[in-house]
Amino acid sequence: MTSAWLTWPRPPLAATPREPVVAKAATQRISFSGPQARSLWQPRLERLRHVALAIEFEKVRQGRIPATLVWTDYDGVDALTEQARAIGLDAKPVKASLGYAADWPPEASIDEPKRLLDYAFLIGARPLDASIAEPAADGLAQAAMRFGYPACCARSWANDLRHGGSDPLASLLARDDKAAMPAHVALAVLGLGPLRHAPCSADCLASREGSRAFLDLGRELGFVEEMAWLEEIADWAVDASLVNGIAEITTATFRCTWLSDEGAARARPLRRAVMRPEKRKAAPGEPADSANILTEFGNGFEAAGFESPFAMRSRFSTVVWEQTAALRRATSAVHVGCREGLLLELIAQTKSKLKLYGTEEDAAAAEAARRRLGASLPVLGGAGLEALAALARLVPEGLDLAFVDPKQLGGRDALAAVRAIAKTVIVIGTDRSLHRFKDMNAYAAAMGLALLPGRAARVSAALSPANDRLH
After folding, report:
1. Which of 300, 303, 323, 292 is closest to 457 using CA atoms?
2. Which residues of the chain are in CATH 3.40.50.150 domains?
3. Does domain 290-462 bear CATH number 3.40.50.150?
4. Tell me: the pLDDT tens digits for 311-320?
5. Quick check: pTM over 0.70?
6. What is the pLDDT of residues 424-448, one digit of tens each?
């Protein structure tokens, strides 16, 4: 089975989470720190996802929890139901959600709309009552305890749900206590274990015991090497941010981001883990220290239209996720007005063989981009049209993609110049633009632009090929 994803956390869940399949979304947006980290940890994370499913199914089979909720895409439905029935469990479909643009083939929205959906299945012993995963408001705590939550965590999560929360990590990040958050808690959003329930606090002793039980069961099932990986991860230092409803977790090996609960913007370093299983190995490295964190995340966030360096990185990470399909097909791309090169860096981390270019009018920002990206990734300086003309001479065969912020582009002539060298133009929405116009469609309309229909557009979207009316 290759396409199933455990829910985060276990039920009960919010009625309308911002991202129903949050483990899939966060995994799709992972950016690795380099080729070596990718080659080591990308297959490990994939393996851990499969192992977590096997452990979760075994917990259900043994009666430790009554059921679990699993998402899959359309092509994975048969494999998921067969895996459950092979160990005597039932699989009952309970809901569907619009999938992710990065997964959609170009013809899917016309010919096979069912392939645009992700499907949630309740997995449990026969007879299976689907209502156990969606209890009434006054029964949330009791339902949580049935799904393996300690009493303290069940009460805390039920309270969060009654107050409109949907992401337990968001509520932890928003609290005033400065207790360090263990890596197992911070990275639980990926659905890999060992923590499977929403914890009441970063240092909850009952949650620690639950994590150890997950690891012990994994070893009993023969996943000794995989449990050692989880123990290694537990010793990692992590940083976290929650800005404008976008959460991001950073380790020395990778970063991941997801749409979380809206609320006051907070960013807090989460240092060495306190709650951790025994006998863990040290992580291979540490994230950048606080003196360098702004340089790493980007100093030019205000000029680029973002509220903070954390917001800029989170938005750009989302751009990379939304445009995964376009980047997969492309061989070359340019970021017009790249500032200090952060978006280009994130793209390079996810597709290292892509030929990338940047243009930037501000000399200091262009130099910072060159330092960030290295000599192998050209960043052209000078006025907008001048830099685009130089790029056209440098790449006479043209480029596959151009990423632009229309507010920074400068007018119709600049848009025409971008269109002359790029097959597809991707519009980026900044915090400033989206706060003013609310969404990408309204933003594009205000700028006299038409977006390509039929694709999700949270912070980025492709322009319609016939569009050249920027004003």
Report:
1. 323
2. 290-462
3. yes
4. 787 788 888 8
5. no
6. 999 998 888 888 888 888 888 888 8
